[in-house]
Write a structure and sequence with these properties.
With 165 residues, the chain is mainly beta. The chain has 2 domains: 5-68 and 134-164, Chitinase A, domain 3, CATH 3.10.50.40; 73-126, Thrombin, subunit H (Beta Barrel). The protein is 8% helix and 43% strand. It is built from 2 helices and 13 strands; from the N terminus they run E-E-E-H-E-E-E-E-E-E-E-E-H-E-E. The strands form 4 sheets. Strands 1, 2, 3, 4 and 11 form a 5-stranded antiparallel beta sheet that branches. A hairpin with a 6-residue loop joins strand 1 (5-15) and strand 2. The protein is elongated.
Length: 165
């Protein structure tokens, strides 16, 4: 996209298809603003929305492989409980099934892991993106569309009327 834009959208995101489980919903009483054209969104999402104008509706599916990838079994691993010891004590307040825990790989890169199972000595963690393996069904309306300001483009995010948000 040669001219980055700010889109305000109302939409429903569902897993797989139009009758799938609702992942996220932004209703009429509030819209979500997105900065398009600076690499922060799924390319297929941007391609579908970019030609639209205020008042236009949309409905499309982004296949898993073009969204957050396929679910990779090798990204589900067992870690020793000792990996969750902080200050000499097991961080039990974060060890519960379904919790997302910020971690780092061996190179220090940040990761987000989901606790899948807790055993006596091991914790099974899923390091796949939460939406990995899902086709994403988007349906909604463009509320507003404008050209992004040079400051927004430079900063890589949308600014409110009051300045940087």
């Amino acid at each position: 996209m040669s001219n980055p834009k700010v889109f305000s959208l109302n939409y429903t995101l569902r897993s797989g298809h139009s009758d799938g489980e609702i992942i996220e919903s932004v209703e009429d009483n509030r819209s979500e603003d997105f900065l398009f054209g600076v690499g922060g969104l799924l390319p297929v999402f941007e391609q579908q929305i970019n030609p639209l104008q205020a008042g236009d509706t949309f409905e499309f599916v982004v296949p898993a492989k073009e969204a957050y990838g396929v679910f990779e079994e090798e990204s589900v691993i067992d870690l020793p409980k000792s990996a969750f010891v902080v200050g000499g004590e097991l961080a039990e307040e974060v060890l519960f099934v379904g919790n997302h825990i910020p971690m780092a790989d061996q190179m220090g890169n940040p990761l987000q892991g989901k606790v899948v199972e807790i055993g006596e000595d091991m914790v099974k963690m899923d390091f796949n993106h939460p939406l990995a393996g899902m086709d994403l069904h988007f349906k909604g309306t463009v509320i507003n569309c404008r050209t992004a300001t040079s400051e927004e483009i430079q900063h890589g995010h949308i600014h409110s009327d009051d300045g940087c948000c």
